């Protein structure tokens, strides 16, 4: 009998310790963002279900000394939304539409709302967003904090379309921020990566939903700058634009196709086209993208198919709202050892052909580097935000890169990416900040000459560094 | 009576092990990194099992099936407490190897017990019934667990399974105990005569 009791005694002890350790690890949730390169244990995740909750979270952190980070959809890829041992505020449920004025064409939304939420609300009124990403899966708070840009070519970046917002400061106060009120903060918070407090609700300017006719042509990269100046920028009827340059070995960084969205003559037919499109069945592009991950012939096939598909699309119509909700599912990539990361480089429009030549020679030696896609868009010069990336009228090249998640994979990508950024900086370019912290500190300073000023303001405004994230901790 | 207890304990064991196995893979997914690591985890399990069978066979002849089964249940109860807290792949490998040995203990002794207990003439029917009850327990457990994981965490599944092993251990122990008592009283009786 005593043997049984002894066993039960020891067992209970083991059970208790195991459970304790388990609870301990579970209460420290591990988070990672879309880059999947930086999984870390955070102290806790707090749901932002209202203004009072948010205020309480900040007040409590001020008492306990906890660090805070802010997360939207976490599509940023360098830990901009979290930090080890910090409390992560999850904004997703803070997503109501507060006010909509179809006559003034403005909308006020809580910052956890996504572009999709807005599009569904305003589409029936014939209105559309002015500036956003090419996809609609992101939150307004996350988009404001990185100052996004997209296919629209007639506004500069998102900052251009923001009327005002409310900010929950590191001290727990609520401020109205606009170009008139607390105007000094405005250019720091837009594109400020959540380092100045929680953006509560945002008022945005909207525009009319319009019908566009798509026009696609293929060309050699050397013709692109002049084509763009004359046929795109020079033609007021073109409202949106994007291009792709080949990453397939046979045509590597030479062949391009461009797509212009031209204000259609038959605007009265808008209602025939303005049902919001939903994600389509993505089997084919997904399969082709899959092939191109693994082989050169896959890349050639993907490029040829893309070109053909885009060519067939020429002459068809799409509404503005639908252009700004393109598919994302086909990009979804599940692998436990590899991941896909983004990079975005900005180069002055005139520099484009030389830049591509230099980029090609830099990449030709990098056999291992698995580059899957380059999409090109245009951003107009904008110096409103302190961390502005468009120092002049620029082409923005988004690179999709498949890489190993391991430390070795990260090192390899870092070497190539730093080289590409050097090429970019040599052409008076810059790069985009919501991605993994591959760039060196020197590169950051060169691309963002006002970064010192930005960090100083941060320290002055938030001396306890209550709000933080990987981006800040790596580069401050 | 003792044979029924044997079936009862085995049914509980099957319930516990089928609770964890389908969901075990979820845990491996959290910890493991690639399909090759999956392969290793299960391969090591099978390999250690294979290597330990001959030894276990001899042991069961020497120290008795019941004792081995009791050891199996209690060892499993303890091992399962480690599963919720593993964080590294190498830890999974070690657990898999231990489970490999224990799995071999269970499989071998289950069969030797049946071989020793079952009357040869009626073996078909008896073993059929044995499998019915144990598989029935397993099936119920899998279905119920499917719902449980929705409410509880994967960790909780391991804790519940561990407790089930303790219960099956107690059932086996009582079995051993009552058998010994019976033996002793029989010895007494023969001595009396
Ligand atoms: C597939 C893909 C496509 C993309 N396409 C484009 C594109 O076309 N154009 C473009 O410009 N960018 C693009 N990006 C980048 C993307 O716009 C940014 O990563 C954006 O921040 C994502 O929004 P999010 O809701 O996921 O924000 P998160 O990644 O969650 O957050 C981004 C930053 O904003 C801060 N933040 C979030 N909410 C708040 C808030 N309420 N108050 C204060 N700070 C806050 C966070 O702390 C963090 O620093 C793309 C990214 C991916 C992965």
UniProtKB/TrEMBL annotation, chain B:
<protein>
    <submittedName>
        <fullName>MFS transporter</fullName>
    </submittedName>
</protein>
<keyword id="KW-0813">Transport</keyword>
<keyword id="KW-1003">Cell membrane</keyword>
<feature type="transmembrane region" description="Helical">
    <location>
        <begin position="154"/>
        <end position="173"/>
    </location>
</feature>
<feature type="transmembrane region" description="Helical">
    <location>
        <begin position="7"/>
        <end position="27"/>
    </location>
</feature>
<feature type="transmembrane region" description="Helical">
    <location>
        <begin position="68"/>
        <end position="86"/>
    </location>
</feature>
<dbReference type="GO" id="GO:0022857">
    <property type="term" value="F:transmembrane transporter activity"/>
</dbReference>
<dbReference type="InterPro" id="IPR036259">
    <property type="entry name" value="MFS_trans_sf"/>
</dbReference>
<feature type="domain" description="Major facilitator superfamily (MFS) profile">
    <location>
        <begin position="1"/>
        <end position="193"/>
    </location>
</feature>
<feature type="transmembrane region" description="Helical">
    <location>
        <begin position="130"/>
        <end position="148"/>
    </location>
</feature>
<keyword id="KW-1133">Transmembrane helix</keyword>
<dbReference type="Pfam" id="PF07690">
    <property type="entry name" value="MFS_1"/>
</dbReference>
<feature type="transmembrane region" description="Helical">
    <location>
        <begin position="92"/>
        <end position="109"/>
    </location>
</feature>
<keyword id="KW-0472">Membrane</keyword>
<dbReference type="InterPro" id="IPR011701">
    <property type="entry name" value="MFS"/>
</dbReference>
<feature type="transmembrane region" description="Helical">
    <location>
        <begin position="39"/>
        <end position="56"/>
    </location>
</feature>
<keyword id="KW-0812">Transmembrane</keyword>
<dbReference type="GO" id="GO:0005886">
    <property type="term" value="C:plasma membrane"/>
</dbReference>
<dbReference type="InterPro" id="IPR020846">
    <property type="entry name" value="MFS_dom"/>
</dbReference>
């Amino acid at each position: 009998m005593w043997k049984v009791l002894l066993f039960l005694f020891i067992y209970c002890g083991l059970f208790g310790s195991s459970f304790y350790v388990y609870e301990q690890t579970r209460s420290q949730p591990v988070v990672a963002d879309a880059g999947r390169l930086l999984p870390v244990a955070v102290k806790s995740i707090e749901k932002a279900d209202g203004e009072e909750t948010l205020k309480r979270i900040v007040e409590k952190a001020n008492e306990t000394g906890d660090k805070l980070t802010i997360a939207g959809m976490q599509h940023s890829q360098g830990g901009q939304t979290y930090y080890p041992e910090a409390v992560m505020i999850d904004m997703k449920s803070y997503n109501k539409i507060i006010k909509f004025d179809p006559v003034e064409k403005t909308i006020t939304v809580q910052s956890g709302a996504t572009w999709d939420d807005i599009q569904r609300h305003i589409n029936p009124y014939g209105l559309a967003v002015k500036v956003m990403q090419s996809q609609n899966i992101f939150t307004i708070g996350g988009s404001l904090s990185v100052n996004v840009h997209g296919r629209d070519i007639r506004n500069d970046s998102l900052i251009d379309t923001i009327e005002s917002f409310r900010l929950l400061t590191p001290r727990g106060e609520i401020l109205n921020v606009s170009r008139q009120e607390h105007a000094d903060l405005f250019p720091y918070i837009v594109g400020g990566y959540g380092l100045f407090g929680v953006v509560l609700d945002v008022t945005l300017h909207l525009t009319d939903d319009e019908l566009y006719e798509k026009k696609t042509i293929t060309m050699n990269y050397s013709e692109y700058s002049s084509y763009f100046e004359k046929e795109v920028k020079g033609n007021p009827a073109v409202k949106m634009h994007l291009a792709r340059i080949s990453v397939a070995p046979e045509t590597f960084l030479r062949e391009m196709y461009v797509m212009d969205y031209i204000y259609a003559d038959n605007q009265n037919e808008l209602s025939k086209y303005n049902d919001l499109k939903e994600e389509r069945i993505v089997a084919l592009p997904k399969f082709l993208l899959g092939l191109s991950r693994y082989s050169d012939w896959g890349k050639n096939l993907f490029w040829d198919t893309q070109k053909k598909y885009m060519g067939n699309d020429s002459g068809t119509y799409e509404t503005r709202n639908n252009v700004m909700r393109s598919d994302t599912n086909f990009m979804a990539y599940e692998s436990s050892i590899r991941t896909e990361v983004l990079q975005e480089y900005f180069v002055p429009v005139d520099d484009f052909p030389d830049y591509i030549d230099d980029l090609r020679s830099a990449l030709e030696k990098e056999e291992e580097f698995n580059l899957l896609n380059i999409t090109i868009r245009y951003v107009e010069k904008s110096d409103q935000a302190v961390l502005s990336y468009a120092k002049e009228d620029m082409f923005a090249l988004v690179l999709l890169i498949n890489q190993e998640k391991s430390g070795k994979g990260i090192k390899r990508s870092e070497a190539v990416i730093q080289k590409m950024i050097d090429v970019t900086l040599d052409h008076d370019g810059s790069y985009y900040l919501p991605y993994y912290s591959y760039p060196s500190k020197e590169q950051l300073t060169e691309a963002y000459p006002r970064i010192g000023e930005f960090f100083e303001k941060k320290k002055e405004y938030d001396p306890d560094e209550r709000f933080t994230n990987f981006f800040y901790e790596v580069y401050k | 009576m003792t044979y029924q207890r044997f079936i009862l304990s085995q049914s509980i064991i099957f319930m516990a092990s089928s609770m964890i196995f389908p969901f075990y893979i979820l845990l491996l997914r959290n910890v493991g990194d690639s399909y090759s690591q999956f392969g290793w985890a299960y391969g090591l399990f099978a390999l250690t099992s294979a290597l330990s069978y001959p030894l276990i066979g001899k042991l069961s002849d020497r120290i008795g099936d019941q004792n081995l089964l009791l050891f199996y249940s209690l060892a499993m109860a303890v091992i399962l407490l480690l599963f919720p807290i593993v964080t590294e792949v190498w830890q999974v490998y070690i657990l898999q190897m231990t489970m490999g040995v224990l799995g071999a203990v269970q499989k071998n002794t289950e069969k030797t017990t049946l071989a020793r207990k079952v009357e040869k003439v009626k073996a078909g029917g008896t073993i059929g019934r044995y499998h019915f009850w144990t598989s029935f327990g397993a099936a119920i457990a899998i279905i119920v667990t499917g719902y449980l994981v929705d409410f509880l965490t994967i960790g909780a599944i391991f804790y519940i399974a561990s407790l089930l092993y303790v219960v099956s251990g107690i059932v086996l122990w009582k079995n051993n105990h009552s058998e010994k008592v019976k033996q002793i009283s029989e010895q007494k009786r023969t001595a009396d005569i």
